[in-house]
Amino acid sequence: MSFTIYPAIDMRGGKCVRLLQGDYDKETVYGDSPFDMAKEFALEGAKWIHMVDLDGAKDGKRVNDAFVIKAAQELNAKVQIGGGIRTEQDIVHYLERGIERVIIGSIAISNPGFAVEMIKKYGSKIAVGIDAKNGLVATHGWLETSEMKAIEVGKRFADAGAETFIFTDIATDGMLSGPNLEAVKLMAKETGKDVIASGGVSRLSDLTALKALSVSGVEGAIVGKAIYEGRFTVREALREVNE
Hints:
Radius of gyration: 16 Å
Number of helices: 11
Distance between the termini: 12 Å
Structural class: alpha/beta
């Protein structure tokens, strides 16, 4: 089974940042140019780049989209984008400009009918982002927690035709504490679809452990802080999962 590494670029105020467990008050700036960072990742061999518009997630509209479009149009890597996507116009805006996959998160929870319609219309171009806090879905840049179980939400959208899920365990995000393997595996098993794991990857052995779940449907891993903190490079991560 192939396993994809998705180096992450979280954008806020036009810079590359990381938040600790999604807390906007716990921000570290890692670079002044999201595009330059994306270019570096592509040069190291990344086939995909995961970009998140944090301002967009908080404000409910596209804010840092220019960097995303530039990366998609100028780099030899596919781009997926999440954050601030609330309307079909947002989805079309990105897909028409070369973005490979658009992630819908908060809107999928607040307006599931709309999400199902978009999944049916755009198919594999739509990924559903499910962010869980103690098994419950969190929305709006993780500022709010719903009463819905992440697994149930995943199953509902899988039944509607979603092919790809991005599953984040908020407790592990940015903590470099290791991914929640059981939760990721369960999401893949219960939905029967491709699941991209997000949160907690801190060492190459975490990637090996996640790749071992590829037989269960875990398709890849989003890696952010570990790369920025120098734990390993994108090139080393790719070597680890491709050997």
